[in-house]
Amino acid sequence: MDPLPPRLHRDVVSFVRRSTRMNESQMKAWERYEKAFVVDVPRGDMSTSIADDARVDWVAAFGREAPLIVEIGSGAGDSLAPMAEGRPDANVVAFEVFEPAVASTLGRLGRHGIGNVRVVVADGAQGLAKLFDDGSVSELWTFFADPWHKKRHHKRRLVGTDFADAVVAKLAPGGLWRLATDWEDYALWMREHLDGFAGLENVHGGWAPRLAERPVTKYERKGLEAGRVVFDLTYRRVDAPQD
């Protein structure tokens, strides 16, 4: 019997599904590149959820075997496309629920001839838990996840102990989890939940230097212009101490 995916509370999703209306250029990009880049997965009860028995053969999806990098919340591909282009020896799987943003991503990938990305239009936390073998992910990117400012909405935040359980299970030994946010309270929340978490090591013992290969996106620039500070973190998958 196949092992169950790591327990992950997703009764409350960590995103808001916005309007799916695409503009003309996005529709053209979707029609032209959807078959090349988008991986369809069986759905659960919600349109962005993933069935418990869903499986993906990533070697077949990419047509090659290579280290797997996963990005959750890839948006319009502003950072995904150049970062994937800079990692030609890796297979990059991106999760995004906002279809117009996915369409923009497909256009970027197609225009720049970036062939090492596949996109799943579904909840990324579920995708990580259900679609990857344990110990198979070399790197995870979660950049500028929704901070869910109101205290009553903090349970919707992507980063937390349940999600960290899944990350530890899916990362290969020595694999890296790279995070960034421009909201200080969310950055401190991340440190509170991840520093000292069994199976994870804060690589820098505190805040990480900015990842040089991560470009400054329009979203990040807007935050910087508003006076916010960007906080980077990097965690490494390590063997948990034995009792």
TrEMBL record:
Keywords: Methyltransferase, S-adenosyl-L-methionine, Transferase, tRNA processing
UniProt entry tagged with the keyword NADP: no
Molecular function via GO: tRNA (guanine(46)-N7)-methyltransferase activity
Chemical reaction(s) catalysed: guanosine(46) in tRNA + S-adenosyl-L-methionine = N(7)-methylguanosine(46) in tRNA + S-adenosyl-L-homocysteine
EC primary class: transferase
Domain of life assignment: Bacteria
Residues that, per the record, bind S-adenosyl-L-methionine: 71, 96, 123, 146
Residues binding substrate: 150, 182, 217-220
A Pfam family recorded for this sequence: Methyltransf_4
InterPro entries referenced in this protein's UniProt entry, alphabetically: SAM-dependent_MTases_sf, tRNA_(Gua-N-7)_MeTrfase_Trmb, tRNA_methyltr_TrmB_bact
Keyword Transcription regulation: no
Record-listed E.C. numbers: 2.1.1.33
Pathway: tRNA modification; N(7)-methylguanine-tRNA biosynthesis
Similarity remark: Belongs to the class I-like SAM-binding methyltransferase superfamily. TrmB family.
Cited function: Catalyzes the formation of N(7)-methylguanine at position 46 (m7G46) in tRNA.
UniProt name for this protein: tRNA (guanine-N(7)-)-methyltransferase
Organism: Tessaracoccus lacteus
